[in-house]
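sry for the spam today, last one i promise. struct tokens for design, 75 residues
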């Protein structure tokens, strides 16, 4: 499977695998990414334990990397 074809189920399996290895089962909520026309930038919001951030990711040769943090919040 290429880096660009992760399904929702694959993401959940990967997160569960990380949780099992680290023993950290915090609840993480994230939005479905919104892509630009070229599909090399994505907007996503992440939330964990009452705080979060909105970010722009950029696709690089080695995968998706954080490009811009638009804003963050704490509740």
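last one done:
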């Amino acid at each position: 499977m290429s880096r660009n074809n992760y399904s929702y189920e694959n993401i959940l399996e990967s997160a569960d695998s990380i949780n099992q290895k680290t023993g950290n089962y915090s609840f993480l909520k994230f939005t479905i990414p919104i892509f630009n026309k070229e599909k090399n930038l994505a907007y996503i919001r992440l939330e964990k334990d009452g705080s979060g951030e909105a970010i722009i990711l950029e696709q690089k040769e080695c995968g998706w990397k954080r490009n811009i943090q638009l804003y963050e919040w704490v509740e």
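Residues 55 and 69 are 4 Å apart (CA to CA). ok im logging off now
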